[in-house]
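Troubleshooting entry. The earlier prediction with pyridoxal-5'-phosphate gave an output that would not parse, so I re-checked the input for stray whitespace and re-submitted. Clean input:
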Amino acid sequence: MPVIKLPTAIPGPKSRALASRRQNAVPRGLSHATPIYVAKAEGAQIEDVDGNRYIDLAGGIGCLNVGHRREPVLEAIRQQADRFLHTCVQVTPYEGYIRLAERLNALAPGKFAKKTLLVNTGAEAVENAVKIARAHTGRPSIIAFEDAFHGRTMMTLALTSKTHPYKAGFAPFPGEVYRIPYAYCYRCSYSLSYPSCELYCARQLQDTFKRVVANEQVAAVIAEPVLGEGGFVAPPTDFFKILIDICHKHGVLFIADEIQSGFGRTGALFASERYGIEPDIMVTAKSLGGGLPIAAITGRAEIMDAPGPGGLGGTFAGNPLSCEAALAVLDIFERENLLTRADELGEQFQARARKWQRRWPLIGDIRGLGAMQAIELVKSAETREPAPQETKQITQYCYEHGVITITAGTYGNVIRVLVPLVITDAEMEEALGVLESALQSVCEKKGELAQPV
Ligand SMILES: Cc1ncc(COP(=O)(O)O)c(C=O)c1O
């Protein structure tokens, strides 16, 4: 039985009515990937206010790795709601906060002693990681990467790379942020090829300390182990080990932003584990809360203890409902084999995408780690000129035919998969079938002839 059910045109009348109210009530700066308004969601499915049913490949931008409305998460929230909603941890603390910090300290890579600070959002976690790194090292500067995304607050925008729509018009940003190329092999900034490049990009950090910013001024290098917004780029195996070695030689901390790559997405609880690295500080958010807002900064105990009492915190930071939801999420990962499932989903996607690539030159690159998978679309396989218009047409076709997908990439030409890991094989096949029809429809319109598979 197919999941997708579309009794109305998309968007339906109720969604259209809400969109027109939204026009008057909400600023245009908040954009929506789709024009449909949600009524309910379950597992990997979403139903809109007009009764249309979709398969969700976006998971609220990677926040629902354990699925929409998982019962253990709901039950944990209900039980906490019966006890208390908010006291502010800075006024009267509670056990849930401590239990979650203990669990994250035990789970984060590295056998050393760790401590965890809880906050509300990914951007807030990155902000705090920078504060802590500066307090510990007594140094001001942070090195971030091209194509990085770290959030929408002022400091995190300074760290973020993509100009439109994120940074343009919002300057000035906080200073002492320097940027270096990431290991984006499909578009190598040095026009080299892996493995013959011997990861020149990672080794260039040494040169950056000579030519751009003095190492004794640098508090930390911050990197996403797999680029999220930047287009799901997973660097070659040793990229981070080389970077971290150079960092540590100079007393520079390494911060891993696992906000999108964390909690099972890449087939390990954290992508850092897949690279065999132990970040000094790791920031997590998104899928940690199973749908509620919560974020964490987990790091070496002596680093985390650098700011003095009162230097860290926030009114709602680590709120009781979110802590209990996050504990339930961690229980689900302990009980269910979602990490293996992430790898299976990744293989299912890759196998299908490789067939597409043989048929349509529009698909320039297929890449990812575990269930963090994407295709990068190009106008020509030779020039690799990005194809953002076609990318938009494909995602539009998808939601009009019952599949919710989102784009990524500095050039807006990447379609990424952040499907809840509880999706069934049948649901995934159905969703990939729609994505395939979308590619076919757009390629036919472009006059791109399918090659025999
Ligand atoms: C890697 C990464 N860091 C930081 C953020 C910011 O998180 P939030 O939107 O919760 O502030 C995001 C959000 O997409 C992200 O993907």
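This one parsed fine. Residues 61, 121-123, 126, 149-151, 224, 228-229, 257, 259-260, 285 surround pyridoxal-5'-phosphate (CB under 6 Å).
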